[in-house]
Amino acid sequence: MATEILMPALSPTMEEGTLAKWLVKEGDAVKSGQIIAEIETDKATMEFEAVDEGTVGKILVAEGTQGVKVNTPIAVLVEEGEAVPASGPSGASSGAAAPSSAKSDAPQSDEPPAAPAVVAAPVAVVSNASPDWAEGTAMKTMTVREALREAMAEEMRANGNVFLMGEEVGEYQGAYKISQGLLDEFGPKRVIDTPITEIGFAGIGVGAAWGGLSPIVEFMTFNFAMQAIDHIINSAAKTNYMSGGQLPCPIVFRGPNGAAARVAAQHSQDYAAWYAAIPGLRVVMPYSAADAKGLLKSAIRDPNPVVFLENEILYGRSFEVPDLPDFTIPFGKARIWREGSDVTIVSFGIGMAHALEAADQLAKDGISAEVIDLRTLRPIDYDTVLASVMKTNRCVTVEEGFPVGSIGNHLSAVIMERAFDYLDAPVVNCTGKDVPMPYAANLEKLALITPAEIVTAVKSVCYR
Amino acid sequence: MAARKSSEKSNVSKDELLKYYREMLLIRRFEEKAGQLYGMGLIGGFCHLYIGQEAVVVGLEACTKDGDKRLTSYRDHGHMLACGMEARGVMAELTGRVGGYSKGKGGSMHMFSREKHFYGGHGIVGAQVPLGAGLAMSDWYKGNDNVTFVYFGDGAANQGQVYETYNMAELWGLPVVFVIENNQYAMGTSMKRATKSTTLFGRGTAYGIPGEQVDGMDVLAVKAAGEKAVAHCRAGKGPYILEMMTYRYRGHSMSDPAKYRTREEVEKIKQEKDAIDHVRDLLVGAGHASEEDLKTIDKEIKAIVNDSADFAKESPEPQLSELWTDIYA
After folding, report:
1. Which of A103, A134, A150, B16 is at a distance of 20 to 30 A from B145, taking alpha carbons?
2. Predicted complex: ipTM over 0.85
3. Which residues on B lie below 8 Å from A200 (Cβ)?
């Protein structure tokens, strides 16, 4: 049976090419894999191999011909003793399918894509900010450090597949003492000290998660996770999608994020906006001890990769935590820390400490600020923010990270799209300064966001 | 590449030789068909063919048991066929159709099968190495005797994360076989232009990992070395390195004209070292199969491959709503 040989596409972008040279002539026998022609693509001159065996019955496109479209028949291959069919491409024969590209017969628009996370029109919004625990619940005071430790210990007791891995998490008892005591309770197989090798143990953690475990990977700080970011994003966040849902990755990457004190540029970066940009990740950044505990427990149970951004300065701060046997906080639920009527201040992580301090000062000046803690940055609880802005008509965002491409920039866009008519002033983003973190005490202070700057920003949007 | 040592007078059974012949031939014919469909515009983007290297994965898969895991780079079609994944599902993923292993959302470089314990299909050179050690860690943690096979090339062997992984795998005694498929070219850069340390398996010595170099064009030599490596891992002795000396006949990807090596070099390997011809000679030489028998096998393989191509053309493109699924579990 005769087989048409078609002009091949030999690069991802090739639409046509030059048939530079024939290496066979009519009547020649060809074997599968034999190089039969040279073809110039938009990138290079390529050798073109025969797929089927047979005899070259007819060459349809002479060598030297330019602009030969992909899938044009360029020769006819016949079996031994077979006559050459009448010239001209006579419909597809067995070995070669009809020259139709996958693209051309694609359904143009048989159904609309699902709505994006943010819709354009102003719509009714309902705040999600219900209380996290019932009124009258017994409370205990604990530090953020203790809350994180308790969350891990409780989840490790409940599920034998949960384990902790990282630098100095075991015998040293944690570089910041978050894992203190865990080695004693759970042993070296579940509290694993790693060498200093971030990309290596991040990748091993992802593989272990695919293998059915629930790893908690501690980075001594998130600055060092830049060595491992390929596995956080390319391996952990994308594989469930790329596998058509076959390979979810239940892993938590956690550790301190952002500036500590006087450790300069390489150890003082807030990665919130970077990770929040990535579909497939959950991103959590708690402020209080109760949120640290409830959200870390949710993170360990979540079937998806979670980037859990802590803060060294907050580790030693104490908060009230509900004294419940199994207390969790869901992702995507903001917390209203302080109700107010004149302006909405939105923040997360250590930014909340500055925002609350600013709100106290503003109250003295007669400005009532509503303060919202996002708590999770992917997903973001847009509705609670929008409901508040629709009430106060003004918004200031607060974060420690760099100004370009910040979480505040994103919130500003969402507020503009969904609540533009409610705004009485432009949204202002308070961020860290657009500089690498300096070491000198006075310069470091200048680079960081301060309550005073937030007060100034609020007064500007209140025209005061 | 060293001359073939193994077994011209092998004691390998007829059935085993026929199995290797069929499996290697399936990979080669499948890849030739994939190249053809790429030429017709039915497969897009990057497409890296495994032609020439078939003996490596076929020989090692012969050493596996149920529960063992495997993963590799983006040159992954052969590994999937060898571990029992369906030709239809692989080809339909290449054409970006819903019948593909990733519903068309992964493509040539990103396919997976939980059922067959195939964990990708990874597009970032070297990334599969710690990922594979992590899969091995999950079995180590659970205390069973499963082994993970991590395949990577001589190019990936220069990535830093490979050595971070060697260090931890030996430190913890993880049951992982590191298989370096040394086809001697990292895209267009020959090994000699990339490193002075050209005995790749020997780099494990620094971490205490045993290993050896193997004629990767000889499926029987591959199988024998694989058995040794697997026994080491199953016995709880930690990782093992196999450096498979092999050769890819085609370019790095479909758009690579392969001008960095001579046609004579490629032809010489094809003539003298071809893995499929080797087994064919053994079969015919021992009287296990006639030319007629082999033609019958060729026809059967061709039918499987043509069927996969038909399926890959007929399977519909994914629903547009699939854009928004599988982002989260």
Report:
1. B16
2. yes
3. 130, 161, 164-165, 167-168
